[in-house]
UniProtKB/TrEMBL annotation:
Belongs to the pirin family. CDD domains: cupin_pirin_C, cupin_pirin_N. SUPFAM superfamilies: RmlC-like cupins. This is Pirin. Coiled coil: none annotated. It holds the Pfam family Pirin_C. It comes from Krasilnikovia cinnamomea.
Amino acid sequence: MPAITVDDVLVLPRLPGLDPTAVIRPVHRLTTAPSGFEGEGFPVRRAFAGVPLTELDPFVHLDQMGEVDYAPGEPKGTPWHPHRGFETVTYMIDGTMDHQDSNGGGGTITNGDTQWMTAGQGILHIEAPPERLVASGGLFHGLQLWVNLPRAAKMIPPRYQDIRGQAAALLTTPDGGALIRVIAGEIAGHAGPGSTHTPINLAHITLQPGAQLDLPWQREYNALVYVLAGRGTVGPDQQPLRLGQLVVHGAGDAIRITAEPAPDTLELFALGGRPIREPVAQYGPFVMNTRAELIQAFEDFQQGRLGVIPAERLPHTG
């Protein structure tokens, strides 16, 4: 699981020790993601399945894409499709993905890179493996997160952020047992490169076997942790945790995770944010506040108001 790594985590900034009065967030809900298929048939785990939207707010959807080792000719993507009213955040851990949208944005993301698309008032886009990967096959593993936009930002102009993995803020625990990659938001004063409309934190964390992480977290944010690989325990009661499981935490000041002693690392995606607390009306690729706004989004898409598919693919995406 390459993402972004360092030869010696001990050269990185350290998390501060927890205040003795800090409250470790308890486990409010623990779910296991069901498996399915997306787009043209690539395998996913639906990380948020079975969790009420009120507990996910400001997030809407999270898929773990892969991990799968494709044979030649097998890699798959998605066809052109619309979005309105939210942001898609695609984090590539292993492999390569091309992106192009009707607003002129696009590019290639690979190990540790993030493609952040703000759909806003509407956009068309496509995500697909490059032709060379289709021909050769190879490992593919990533995440796609949908971040809701507040009512005031739902109809803003579309925007694209190309975030290279090297731009992530890197830090470790006092004993060097973890590598924390901050993609967006702020953890213990260390800010990630992603620019957000809603205050959120996103981080990919690698815990060495037997290591413990006490991760400070803003009290006003919700706190979610999804397991990408490995096993461990979570919370003050040390509940068992494994691949494909999502933890919804209760209130508190910090998240506590411990990796099993051996043999593998524990890979985590930690996310949370300040809840928007607005009505959510979602259908397919649109996330709005009301049913009438959803109907309007479909009408606008059918009338071509969400953009036009470019005649050619970007030259650097294939």
